Amino acid sequence: MRGAVRWMASVLLCVTLWLTPWGPVAAMDAAMTERYHSLIEEFRCLVCQNESLAESDADLATDLRTEIQELLEDGASDAEITDFLVARYGDFVLYRPQFKPLTYVLWIGPFVLAAAGLATLLLRIRRRAGSEAGAPLSAQEQQRLRDLLDDSARE
Amino acid sequence: MLRYLLPAALFAVLVVFLGLGLNRDPSMVPSPLIDKPAPAFSLPHLKHPAQRFTHRDLRGNVSLVNVWATWCVACYGEHPVLVALARSGQVPIYGLNLKDKRPAAIRWLRELGDPYAAIAFDADGRVAIDWGVYGAPETFVVDSGGIIRYKHIGPLTAEVLTETILPLVRRLREG
């Protein structure tokens, strides 16, 4: 009898645990949950640096997810949550760095380099095209051309 | 001339950048809290749960704040360095015990020695997040005004102490 009760209790416990929702969704409505999920994709887990907070199993990532959830429930905006993390961990937590003087080179640099490359290329093409079309043949070259044409006409 | 010099110069610049990139450790993320006041906190003392340890207790003297835990293997390696530093009396060390069990932490100190002037017990790691801690051990240098001046990530070594931390502590005391 006692064995049966104990068995029932453990089954019940398993079912309850199984039904307990995973992750921090219970207190948030649908819109907030969506914001939560898009936010945790945006931040880097500093422990395993190539994973976002959403992907990481690290202890710190779990704690930061909880922190973000609580900030959301307290009515914080996305910008406030970003500021919260940047103030503690620096710009490195952001997968998409903010656009500010320190990151101008990062954001604009590739376009500047691409434009410079394109400009150089265009300049060279134009210069080469100009040199080929512009120079007339010398008298010697004219003579050689005439010989070649005569040769081919004879054959 | 330019047609050879320009690519060579660009290549040299590239090599310098790649060289710098290779020699930087990506696991050392610079803290944005350097030269800012130590984040406010109020935590129970590890050994005296009824008393509070707050950021105000860090003022008045240059000190180290060392983040540690008994589950942290690197902290075990670092511990003798802290004990030796405490024995030398050069700078007070405060502890921030991170997400630990109180009895385990107290046993650790009893067995390995207690280098700390006082230890804050951060059971859920919230204060550590405010301090931008992302692993243990980490060590902060806090000046007498309660401003964070330096953060060392990873275990302290005798070398780091003599070359970086202690010279900084002396400078802060003078200035």
Let me know the average pLDDT of chain A: 84
Helix content of chain B: 40-55%
Helix content of chain A: 55-70%
Number of domains of chain A: 2
Quick one: overall form of chain B? Answer: elongated
Note the beta-strand portion of chain A. under 5%
**Per the principal axes of the C-alpha atoms, what is the gross shape of chain A?**
elongated
Radius of gyration of chain B: 20 Å
SSE order of chain A, as H and E?
Answer: HHHHHH
Radius of gyration of chain A: 34 Å
Mean pLDDT level of chain B: 95
Give the class of chain A from helix and strand content and strand pairing.
mainly alpha
Largest interface: A-B, 15 and 17 residues
Please describe the biggest sheet of chain B, giving its number of strands, its sense, and whether it closes into a barrel.
5 strands, mixed
**SSE order of chain B, as H and E?**
HEEEHEHEHEEH
The major β-sheet of chain A equals: none
Major β-sheet strand ordering of chain B: 5-4-3-6-7
Would you spell out the secondary-structure blueprint of this structure?
The complex is a heterodimer of chains A (155) and B (175).
Chain A: H1 2-19, H2 30-42, H3 59-73, H4 78-89, H5 104-134, H6 139-154
Helix pairs in contact in A: 2-3
Chain B: H1 2-22, E1 42-44, E2 52-54, E3 63-68, H2 73-88, E4 93-98, H3 102-112, E5 118-122, H4 126-130, E6 138-142, E7 148-153, H5 158-174
Parallel strand pairs in B: 3-4, 4-5
Antiparallel strand pairs in B: 1-2, 3-6, 6-7
Structure description:
The complex is a heterodimer of chains A (155) and B (175). Chain A has 155 residues and is mostly helical. Chain A has 6 helices and no strands. Chain A has helices spanning 2-19, 30-42, 59-73, 78-89, 104-134, 139-154. Chain B has a 5-stranded mixed beta sheet. Chain B has a two-stranded antiparallel ribbon with strand order 1-2. The mean pLDDT of chain B is 95. In chain B, a hairpin with a 7-residue loop joins strand 1 and strand 2 (52-54). Helices cover 40% and strands 19% of the residues of chain B. By secondary structure, chain B is of the alpha/beta class. The chains are: A mainly alpha (155), B alpha/beta (175). Chains A and B meet through helix 3 and helix 4 of A and helix 4 of B.
